[in-house]
Design brief:
Elements: E1 2-7, H1 12-23, E2 28-35, H2 39-49, E3 53-56, H3 58-67, E4 72-75, H4 83-91, E5 95-98, H5 101-107, H6 109-112, E6 120-122, H7 125-133, E7 142-149, H8 167-170, H9 180-188, H10 190-203, E8 210-214, E9 220-226, E10 231-235, H11 241-249, E11 272-273, H12 281-291, H13 295-311, H14 317-330, H15 343-362
Parallel strand pairs: 1-2, 1-4, 2-3, 4-5, 5-6, 7-8
Antiparallel strand pairs: 7-9, 8-11, 9-10
Helix pairs in contact: 1-11, 3-4, 5-10, 5-13, 10-12, 13-14, 13-15, 14-15
Length: 364
């Protein structure tokens, strides 16, 4: 029986994790829950699953992780506020099922330096797919990682045609049902850029050996190419319960979580190159990732401000990535706590990035 703490329990990842646990109560027990602000929904979950320990907000979630006896912490918090709980899970020796990609991307070496081998189990469908495919060979045998992208709602459109995109259009994702920030990030492909940084940090593969390919059907979730020319791909119908279940049960699988592909029905899977002129976010994210230090934190913080401004009508769709690039270019890591990578310097860099983004938005 694995004891599980779920952070972000009222969000999409958290509620699906509870579905998995409800269907597999002989394998998992929920011992702690946290939510960002939805206290009543979390209380209802706690009552249903008989959970004694709950927390509201990221600071309480971090303390919950440190105080509660658990085997697995599922971090489904949205945004860089998840960094504290991520560090707490790693420092206390828990297995970290990580859906909060921002904490790894922002924390960078601060996170990887304290993580034991195998302690972080990715919950993003793409990184879960890579983790599964990597079991087919040694690290030294990997030639490259290939992350698949659905292409979002604007696949195939020119840059010029994206100038008039509305928030409602950006939220109309063809495959996944996600929150406002993640769905918008998928439309700009900022999400895929963040996932490239995440893949580099999780699997210790150089940026020039990580590629992105557009796969509209979202059935092949990512691939690993090995030095002998073989490619291992993980394929399944889009359903986040599968990577969530692997995060909870790794390295064992949880039976009956998702439906398999029906191989008796004719189907076509297509793969297309990424249009970096229309969607430059992946290229920009690789630049921030290579620069390292506080640059990924600045990239992420500027994006969060830009997404809010877009949905509030203060920034056009194309302005999101333009603003990120403007803020990243202006960043001086030496001005942030002397350039040392600490929680304090990351927080300072994020504050600077948000202020810089807000000033740039106001000046447009």
């Amino acid at each position: 029986m694995r004891r599980v703490v779920i952070l972000g329990s009222t969000g999409s990842i958290g509620t699906q994790a509870l579905e998995v646990i409800r269907a597999n109560s002989e394998r998992f027990e929920v011992v702690g829950l946290s939510a960002g602000s939805n206290r009543e929904a979390m209380r209802a979950q706690a009552e249903q699953f008989r959970v004694e320990f709950t927390a509201l907000g990221a600071d309480e979630a971090e303390q919950l992780v440190r105080d509660v006896d658990a085997d697995v912490v599922l971090n489904g918090i949205t945004g860089s506020v998840g960094l504290g709980p991520t560090l707490a899970a790693l420092e206390t020796g828990r297995t970290l099922a990580l859906a909060n990609k921002e904490s790894l991307i922002v924390g960078g070496d601060l996170v990887t330096a304290i993580a034991r081998p195998g302690q972080i189990v990715p919950v993003d469908s793409e990184h879960s797919a890579i983790a599964q495919a990597l079991r087919s060979g040694e690290h030294s045998e990997v030639r490259r990682l290939v992350l698949t992208a659905s292409g979002g709602p604007f696949r195939g459109r020119s840059r010029e045609s994206l100038a008039s995109v509305t928030p409602n259009e950006a939220l109309a994702h063809p495959t996944w049902d996600m929150g406002r920030v993640v769905t918008t990030n998928s439309a700009t492909l900022v999400n895929k850029g963040l996932e490239v940084i995440e893949a580099h940090l999780l699997f210790d593969v150089a940026y020039h050996d990580i590629d992105v390919v557009v796969h509209p059907q979202s059935v092949v979730h990512s691939m690993v190419e090995f030095i002998d020319g073989s490619t291992m791909a993980q394929a399944s119908p889009p359903d986040m319960r599968l990577p969530i279940s692997l995060g909870l049960g790794w390295p064992s699988r949880v039976g009956g979580v998702g439906r398999p592909i029906d191989w008796t029905v004719a189907a076509s899977w297509t793969f297309e190159p990424l249009d970096e002129d229309a969607f430059p976010a992946v290229r920009l994210a690789k630049m921030a990732g290579r620069a390292g230090g506080t640059y990924p934190a600045v990239f992420n913080a500027a994006n969060e401000q830009a997404v809010d401004a877009f949905h509030e009508g203060r920034l056009p769709f194309l302005g999101i990535v333009e603003l990120i690039e403007q803020v990243v270019d202006a960043h001086d890591p030496g001005a942030t706590s002397g350039g040392a990578l600490t929680r304090e310097s990351l927080a300072e860099a994020e504050r600077w990035a948000r202020d810089a983004a807000d000033r740039a938005i106001a000046g447009r």
